[in-house]
Amino acid sequence: MAAPSFLRRSHERSDVPSYAVVGLGVPGGPYQGLGPDDDETEVTAVQIREVVTRLIEAGHWHEGDLRILVVFDAGYDVTRLAWLLADLPVDLLGRLRSDRVMQLPAPSRRPGTQGRPRKHGGQLALSDPATWPDPPVTTSTPTSRYGMAAAAAWDRVHPRLTHRAAWLDHDGDLPVIEGTLIKLTVDHLPGDRDPKPVWLWCSRTGAAPGEVDRLWQAFLRRFDLETGKPQCCHSRGSSALSPVPSRSVVMLAA
Predict the structure, then answer these.
(1) Does domain 5-106+121-162+174-253 have CATH number 3.90.350?
(2) Which of 35-44, 182-191, 198-207, 245-254 is the most confident on average?
(3) Rounded to an integer, what distance in angstroms lies between the CA atom of residue 50 and that of residue 43?
(4) Chain centre distance of CA 124
């Protein structure tokens, strides 16, 4: 799935955190020898866990620091990765396909209500504005290239899981994996006066306006790193990380 054109260009900020770039899924890389029965998301989770553990052991993250932000493109199951890595000090951010349908949080339970509490609220279809409630968080950031960058964010948005595919053998009730859904739009692009929005999901809940801006700016930074540093990696001392492929994960640390 190709990235929208404005994600392939440099964004307007340079005051981003330190970062590490992790190569995934390249010939001769970490997915070499991946068998037909292997779960790609579980393999990705193992790789991320190994890198985060090395960063912590090397002293690049300490208790009390901002959580490490791991940025994915749309080829990854970011919500399941968030569940697999929930015990680590990481927030996961990934792009969603525009045809996804997500769930809003369940409404508050009225006193005296009988039966099991609801897990889900209404649907939020990314392609259907009629299903979008008023966003609790909105921000606007002027840019020199694209006009106003507007972000709208909804809290505790999650997918509705079923006992199929990756969750077929899950024991017990399926989890509700809540996070922050962000819709990012810009005023214009060169040759395109009506650019489509980009949808992002982050495993962090309760994101304030400043955090929402940091998230979408970090996602844009991911494309800067892939474009500008195609054959090297930079981090706080993590020189052993893999080179940047066309499909990569960017890890941002404060």
Answers:
(1) yes
(2) 198-207
(3) 11
(4) 18
